[in-house]
Design brief:
The complex is a heterodimer. Helix content of chain A is 0%, strand content 55%. By secondary structure, chain A is mostly beta strands. In chain A, the strands form 2 sheets. In chain A, strands 2, 4, 5, 6, 9, 10 and 11 form a 7-stranded mixed sheet that branches. In chain A, strands 1-3-8-7 form a 4-stranded antiparallel sheet, with no helix packed on it. By secondary structure, chain B is an all-beta fold. In chain B, the strands form 3 sheets. In chain B, strands 2, 5, 6, 10, 11 and 12 form a 6-stranded mixed sheet that branches. A 4-stranded antiparallel sheet of chain B has the order 3-9-8-7, with no helix packed on it. A two-stranded antiparallel ribbon of chain B has the order 1-4. Chain B is globular and about 40 Å long. The chains are: A mainly beta, B mainly beta. Chains A and B meet through strand 5, strand 9 and strand 10 of A and strand 5, strand 6 and strand 10 of B.
Chain lengths: 113, 114
């Protein structure tokens, strides 16, 4: 298995632009998570899905953030409009069950200028 | 609510020496899982070791081992024969048996000095 695949690896965009981050989880992992990592706040859970259904989106900071999982092999995290304070590393992770740790993707470093 | 506390923001160790990273946690669940993750400068999050709370035996993975003290709610990571490639942020994490969400500590930055 190729692991959790995220794209792009780096994204630089101007304030106000729409940003879409992509994730392909490991096949057979029923749970998918989106995290944001910053120096100030550490790792923050934004949202997670079970069998493509959003279960908890209480970590999504604002309405500018939205996430979808149209099928078991693909998820997106969208920021519209983007702001400089959204600059962070965004991780996607998947997990087959509670007894197992996450498998993380390599992350997307987002810079909003 | 679950909490994970890593009280050492930064540590350093000489190459080939042993170092222990501390982690304490709190949970109301009787059954849960504990994890240590490593994040090197490449930023990839890598699972280092996993412990099931109902197992008394401490988990080991090559040079990595844990000291799991359930009553004290302590889960420390010991790295033996430290190598330069062990330089990374280390995160302790907790998951209840009925929860699919991991709670992470703030991390400990470990530097291995040649």
């Amino acid at each position: 298995d190729a692991g959790v695949i995220q794209s792009p690896r780096h994204e630089v965009t101007e304030m106000g632009q729409e940003v879409t981050l992509r994730c392909k989880p490991i096949s057979g992992h029923d749970y998918l998570f989106w995290y944001r990592q910053t120096m100030m706040r550490g790792l923050e859970l934004l949202i997670y899905f079970n069998n493509n259904v959003p279960i908890d989106d209480s970590g999504m900071p604002e309405d500018r953030f939205s996430a979808k999982m149209p099928n078991a092999s693909f998820s997106t995290l969208k920021i519209q409009p983007s702001e400089p304070r959204d600059s962070a590393v965004y991780f996607c992770a998947s997990r087959p069950g509670a007894a197992y740790g996450y498998t993380f993707g390599s992350g997307t470093r987002l810079t909003v200028v | 609510a679950q909490t994970v506390t890593q009280s050492q923001p930064e540590m350093s160790v000489q190459e080939a020496e042993t170092v222990t990273l501390s982690c304490t946690y709190d949970t109301s669940e009787n059954n849960y899982y504990l994890f240590w993750y490593k994040q090197p400068p490449s930023r990839q999050m890598i699972l280092v070791i996993r412990q099931e709370a109902y197992k008394q035996q401490n988990a080991t993975e090559n040079r990595f081992s844990v000291n799991f003290q359930k009553a004290a709610k302590s889960f420390s990571l010991k790295i033996s024969d430290s190598q330069l490639g062990d330089t990374a942020m280390y995160f302790c994490a907790l998951s209840g048996a009925g929860s699919y969400q991991l709670t992470f500590g703030k991390g400990t930055k470990l530097s291995v000095i040649p």
